[in-house]
Structure formats: structure tokens, C-alpha cells
Amino acid sequence: MINVREKFLQLTNNRTPKGLEESVIKLITEFTLQKDEFDNYYYIIKKSDGTFSNTMFSAHLDTIDRGPSSYSVGHYDNELKKWIYPEKNEEEKEKDKEKLIKHVFDGDFVKTDGNTNLGADDKAGVTIMINLMSEGVPGLYYFFMGEESGCVGSSSLSRVYKSKVESGVLPQVNKCIAFDRRGYDSIITEQMSSECCSDVFAKDLAAKLNEYGFWFKPDPTGIYTDSAEFTDVISECTNLSVGYFSEHTTSEKQDLEFLELFAITLTKIDWEKLQVFRDTSKIIYKGKKSATYNRGGANWDWDDDYSEFWYGNTNHNFNNFNTSTKNNNTYVDRGKGDLDKLNNTINDDAEFDKWYLEQKNKGWKIDDTLKNNENIVD
Q1: What φ, ψ does residue 32 adopt, rounded to 5°?
Q2: Residue range of the domain that includes 42
Q3: pLDDT tens readout for residues 81-133
């Protein structure tokens, strides 16, 4: 068992926007991880009989970058189908030093001094993964890059996942568990308005977790995170709450007591025996591998934890909205974190990922007229 609090605080000493994921890997000194061709990292722990587990655990290495010296790095290479990061000059290295985070403690919570985001999204998930690995819990552990820029790493892997299973590089799993959700009680059953996880599975997992004093329940209000990219190839794909709040803002905070207790509890679950019910052949897939890239409706693009920044819960209907235009493709933000596309569909990953990153780096804020709404979570 690792020291969960100590590891989380170590991981959140610096902001790590896309392009700086390697700095997180350098802090995972407990294990030697393998790197795939998409710059994701993974680790495999087999069962005691030498066979593979049927479970994938996931978290993402990158964070939103709120604070001084916010900048993006790298470019997407259309031929290589991956992001390329140039060697940094001294000025850029100095900027990285300015990404330091100052921790401020408030009871069970840790936050920042208000000048930066904390990065609990998703350093909390990374911490949980390291702890599961330290306890030898069987599974395929995937640390994805570029989630905050449009699930770059996970969508790339999902395109070749079947071939990697067939060639024996990766094990066949029937559940993908992401640790990347705000709050205390969500087991996400829908992402991008489509079922990603069955109620049967969610209720079974909730019952097992709640035996240890938690209050998890099926939650259909998910938006988009890494596990969504595997809904067409893995039966049960969900996302669990890990105790952070106000993600993507300088008010972001993490409940350390919850994180510690939850991390311990997760090592006690028999992941192999959870009820798998969902049929992947009958789903409506809306991820980045889809032919139309589904830009057409609500809840298509922001990662699973971005909507809290906007509306706190699913009952808000804000009337004011902003528009954003990129290459003749206009999107409307209706104040809820879900953007509707007004013009043509984009089929190009690089174009979308670039646009997606630009929007997040704008540092959008809730309108002052909404801040007094008691339902807005801060």
C-alpha cells in the first residue's frame, strides 16, 4: 500500500498540460511502465494462476492548465497519426517551472492558493491506479495522454485495440473502469448520450463498494472521458467518482480522506466476478472512430468532468450562450458545457483536437450573473 495522500500531493506539485505527461511518469517510480506507439503508458498484472485479468483500469496523465504561463505545446502529425513534441528551449523550460502549484489545506480538502488549478482531474485517478498496482490487483492499467484535448491517447488505442488483443500484445477485457469523475457517488452509465455501462453492472459494483460505507449509484449524466472510446469493443465502460470538485477552475479541490479510503476499498473488490451484461453489438457508438464523428447533438465533446465547471447538475437551463467558430464550423455553448455544432461535421481528428484544446485554454468562466445560483458547485 502506498501513502495515498503523499503520492497525490507529489503528483500535483506541477500542472501537466498535454505535452508534459512524461513529467508525471517520472514520478511513478514504483513501477516500470510500458509505452505504446501513441505515447500512452500501461502495466499488466496477471492473476495468481498466470492468466490475464478481464479488467482495464484507466486514468489520464494530462491536466487542464489554469494559471500563469498557460501555453500549448506540440503539433499533430497527420502521417504518423500522433502528437509530436519538439525539444524545449530554455525559455520554455523556465515557463514549466512557473507551473508550480501551492497547496492549501482546508480540513479534509486540499486546494491551491487560487492562482492555478490543482490537477486532481486526473491526478486523483493516477494515484488510485498506483495504489491498486502496489497491492497487486490483477488488471490492465492504462495511463492515457491528451484526455483533456479530446481523448487523444485513448481514441488512438481504441482504433487498434482488437488487433492488439488478437496478436497477444494486450489481454481481452470485458470492463473498462476510468477513475475520472467529480463527487462521491457516481458510477457513470451513459456518455455522449449513449449507454456505456449497464445498470446491472453499475448496481453490482455499487453494492460491493457500498458495503464499505460509500453511497455509489448508477449515474446517466456522464459526458466524455477515456472509457467512452472503448464502448464498441469492451462490454462495460464506466467512470467512477474520486472525490474532486470544481475541476478545470482555480477553485479545484480534492477530498483527501475520501481519496485515501476509496483507494483502499478498491483493492478489496473482486473485479473478476462483477456482472457483465451489456452487449457491444447493440450500442450506438458516438466516439472519435465513428464515421461522422458525431458533432450533431448535445453532450458530445467535453470530457466527463467539464460540465461541473458550468452547471453543477443536470437541471440547469441557462439561456445565455456564446459562440465559437473554427474553419467555418460554428459551435454554440449553451451554458451547460455541451456544445451544439451548427455547420458541417468535422471528420479530421487533428482539426478537432486543435479546436478542443483552444477552447479549454481560453479559461472560460461562469458568467457573474450565475455565480449566486445555489446549485453551482464551487
Answers
A1: -100, 105
A2: 4-282
A3: 666 666 767 776 666 666 789 999 999 999 999 999 999 999 999 999 999 99
